[in-house]
């Protein structure tokens, strides 16, 4: 469900015509809908009903402060993977006691930052990390609340780049070896074991792998309790998929129902770390057609957004729907929709059939709210796009378009290179 619909042939975000925003902010820009974001959060969170739970939005999907504030106001927590994400979450007003920290490469400074801010829990991904956390907490005279992220060796049946719960992946501690690691952690003076954590992958389209994970976690918890440990939290990670094209992922209600059933009489607090499902379909990328180039073998629609703005098609071969912002009656053209970047891998869509556009027409790249702006870069010295939030008939810029000056703002030419280059004859 989302609020990007046509009204009299013009695409609107809620009640704002998209061309109006394009006129005001230029292109390309990301556009999110407040109503959709709120609806998605509510549908997800309420699906778990009275089961004691905490919905921790995975910031990596979309860390814009305004987006975070929307979720914070609704009581969300955050799943973070870096000091930068912790900074953002706090800045947006997410309470530290609602923040969990995952990731295989936490640095000493980041662990310190998290402990000083008293976050809810660190999800530990290796024995060495556990020891470092113990040392850092000792130095700060604190006890670090931890869970071990276990790798349950489950095939999430998703793209190999975004599958994380297999033995061959770098994430977590093998579930069989985790028992020993829990035993060792129990004796560390400065960690307090709170829970068990797993995250098996992203864009999952079946409930089966989640249920398999719950079953494995339950067995582990029984074994841990036999060791005398108190496990008060089960973190089930994120990963619920969305519809980009024709996928039919479980709805949040189905997903929650299946999990609740698998949990059985569990009364522990569960943590969920949804990213994509909350923001993916709540955002689009609006881009302008620059040229239509007809070739012998292929046609190309060249637009002003490239792989630096939306990397997913290039990196994963992902499908994103494409809609003309203004519907038009024109002959159809089959073409690759490509950006201005100097790489053959720079495309937003391949072999797509669209009404023949003209230079200046706007296209909407759908389902771009998750891992869109957050994975964007300045490659080819392209200022990053603006981000806009629609609300009813209004809209606000929630991140300004970068300028050329922004591109070089942090760079410095050392003194020994100063002075203008000499003129040279060719
Ligand atoms: N928790 C952990 C520990 C994670 O690593 C992730 C995502 C999530 C939660 C949120 O997963 P979600 O609910 O969004 O599936 N860039 C890729 C996705 C990478 C996901 C990485 N981890 C993409 O564009 O598809």
Helices and strands, with pairings:
Blueprint: E1 4-7, E2 10-13, E3 16-17, H1 18-25, E4 29-33, H2 34-47, E5 53-58, H3 65-73, E6 77-80, H4 83-91, E7 99-101, H5 108-116, E8 121-124, H6 127-139, E9 144-151, E10 173-174, H7 175-186, E11 191-197, H8 208-226, E12 233-235, H9 252-263, E13 269-272, H10 276-279, E14 283-294, E15 299-303, H11 312-316, E16 322-324, E17 332-338, E18 347-355, E19 362-365, E20 386-391, E21 394-399, H12 404-408
Parallel strand pairs: 4-20, 5-6, 5-13, 6-7, 7-8, 8-9, 9-10, 9-11, 11-12, 12-13, 15-17
Antiparallel strand pairs: 1-2, 2-3, 4-14, 14-15, 14-19, 16-19, 17-18, 20-21
The structure holds ligand LLP.
Ligand LLP binds at residues 58, 61, 79, 102, 162, 199, 202-203, 237-240, 273-277, 312, 371.
Give a structural overview.
With 426 residues, the protein is of the alpha/beta class. The protein folds into two domains: 4-31 and 280-408, Lyase, Ornithine Decarboxylase, Chain A, domain 1 (Beta Barrel); 34-276, TIM Barrel, CATH 3.20.20.10. The chain is built from twelve helices and 21 strands. It has helices at 18-25, 34-47, 65-73, 83-91, 108-116, 127-139, 175-186, 208-226, 252-263, 276-279, 312-316, 404-408; strands at 4-7, 10-13, 16-17, 29-33, 53-58, 77-80, 99-101, 121-124, 144-151, 173-174, 191-197, 233-235, 269-272, 283-294, 299-303, 322-324, 332-338, 347-355, 362-365, 386-391, 394-399. Strands 4, 14, 15, 16, 17, 18, 19, 20 and 21 form a nine-stranded mixed sheet that branches. Strands 5-6-7-8-9-11-12-13 form an eight-stranded parallel barrel, surrounded by five helices. Strands 1-2-3 form a three-stranded antiparallel sheet. A hairpin with a 2-residue loop joins strand 20 (386-391) and strand 21. The protein is globular, with a radius of gyration of 24 Å. The termini are far apart. The mean pLDDT is 95. The chain binds ligand LLP. Residues 58, 61, 79, 102, 162, 199, 202-203, 237-240, 273-277, 312, 371 line the site of ligand LLP.
């Amino acid at each position: 469900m989302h609020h990007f619909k046509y009204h009299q042939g013009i695409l609107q975000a809620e009640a704002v015509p998209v061309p109006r925003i394009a006129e005001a902010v230029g292109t390309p820009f990301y556009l999110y809908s407040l109503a959709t974001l709120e609806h998605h959060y509510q549908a997800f969170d309420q699906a778990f009903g009275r089961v004691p739970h905490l919905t921790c939005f995975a910031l990596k999907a979309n860390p814009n402060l305004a987006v975070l504030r929307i979720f914070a106001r609704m009581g969300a927590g955050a799943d973070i993977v870096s000091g930068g994400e912790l900074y953002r979450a706090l800045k947006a007003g997410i309470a530290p006691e609602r923040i969990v920290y995952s990731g295989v490469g936490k640095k000493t400074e980041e662990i310190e930052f998290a402990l000083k801010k008293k976050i809810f829990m660190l999800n530990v991904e290796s024995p060495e990390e556990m020891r470092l956390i113990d040392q850092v907490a000792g130095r700060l005279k604190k006890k670090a609340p931890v869970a071990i992220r276990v790798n349950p060796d489950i095939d999430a049946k998703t793209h190999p780049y975004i599958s994380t719960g297999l033995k061959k992946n770098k994430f977590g501690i093998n579930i069989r070896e985790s028992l020993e690691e829990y035993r060792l952690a129990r004796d560390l003076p400065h960690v307090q074991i709170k829970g068990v954590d797993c995250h098996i992958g992203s864009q999952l389209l079946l409930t089966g792998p989640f249920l398999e994970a719950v079953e494995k976690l339950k067995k582990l918890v029984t074994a841990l309790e036999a060791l005398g440990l108190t496990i008060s939290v089960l973190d089930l990670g994120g990963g619920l998929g969305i519809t980009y094209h024709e996928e039919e992922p479980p709805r949040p209600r189905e997903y929650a129902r299946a999990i609740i059933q698998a949990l059985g009489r569990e009364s522990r607090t569960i943590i969920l770390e949804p990213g994509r499902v909350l923001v993916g379909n709540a955002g689009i990328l609006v881009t302008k057609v620059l040229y239509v180039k007809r070739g012998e073998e292929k046609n190309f629609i060249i637009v002003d957004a490239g792989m630096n703005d939306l990397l997913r098609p290039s990196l994963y071969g992902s499908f994103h729907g494409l809609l003309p912002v203004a519907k038009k009656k024109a002959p159809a053209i089959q073409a690759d929709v490509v950006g201005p970047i100097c790489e053959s891998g720079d495309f937003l869509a391949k072999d797509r059939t669209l009404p023949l556009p003209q230079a200046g027409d706007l296209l909407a790249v759908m389902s771009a709210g998750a891992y869109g702006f957050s994975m964007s870069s300045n490659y080819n010295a392209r200022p990053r796009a603006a981000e806009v939030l629609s609300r009813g008939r209004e809209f606000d810029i929630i991140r300004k378009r970068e300028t050329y000056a922004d591109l070089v703002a942090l760079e410095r030419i050392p003194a020994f290179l100063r002075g203008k280059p000499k003129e040279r004859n060719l």
